[in-house]
Every structure is written in C-alpha cells, then in structure tokens.
Amino acid sequence: MDPLLLFVFVLAAFLGVELVAKVPSQLHTPLMSGTNAISGITVVGAVAVAAEAATTHGRLPRLAAALGFAAIVLAAVNVVGGYLVTDRMLGMFKTKTGREGK
C-alpha cells in the first residue's frame, strides 16, 4: 500500500471528525443535506472499485469486491437517510392546511 494514500486517508478521517464535532447542532441537518452529493460520489466510486475487483482474480480482489459492496450499501443508506431527514426538515416549514386562523 502506498504510504501517501494511507496518510491522505488518515488525514481526511481526522479532519472529518474534527469538522463535524465543531458544527453547531442547528446546522447538522442542513449539513447532512449538503453532504448527500458527496455520498452520491462515494456510491459511484464504490461501484467502480467493486466492478474492477470483480473482473480480476485472486484473494485481494475478492476482499476489494466485498469492501466495495459494503461501501455501496453504506453510502446508499446515507444518501437515502439524508434525503428523508431533509424532507422531514423542509416539511416543518410548510403551512398546515385545514387550520382555521390559528
């Protein structure tokens, strides 16, 4: 494994944790809404990794295919959950019909 790639991964994980920990609670839902695009890119990348690993033979490509599949599932769950939370948040701002002057 390339040490530079490992360094970039560890740095990205550390920065991600630090940034999310410093976000005020009022901004978590809009932030989650905005990161759905990033999770969508993760799904595309995971599909590419899983497809590449599925076309090669050996023990390591099987591991890469399994990790790619897990990444696809987890990123898809994140995308769907983010959109559901965003829809619920936006629903709080809709006016209620049937309320008579209240």
Helix-strand category: mainly alpha
Query: Strand fraction band?
Result: under 5%
Give a short account of the largest sheet. Answer: none
Gyration radius, rounded: 19 Å
Order of helices and strands: HHHH
* Number of helical segments with 4 or more residues: 4
Global morphology: flat
What's the N-to-C terminus distance?
Answer: 64 Å
How many strand segments?
0
**Percentage of residues in helical conformation:** over 70%
Instruction: Give unreliable regions as ranges.
Output: none
Mean pLDDT: 78
Structure description:
The chain starts with a helix and ends in an 11-residue tail after the last helix. It contains four helices and no strands. With 102 residues, the protein is mainly α. The protein is flat and about 60 Å long. It has a domain at 33-92. Helix 2 packs across helix 4. The chain has helices at 3-21, 28-34, 36-55, 59-91. The model has no long low-confidence stretch (mean pLDDT 78).
List the helices and strands and how they pair.
Layout: H1 3-21, H2 28-34, H3 36-55, H4 59-91
In short:
With 102 residues, the protein is mainly alpha-helical. Helix content is 77%, strand content 0%.
Keywords for this entry:
102 residues; mainly alpha; 77% helix; 4 helices; flat
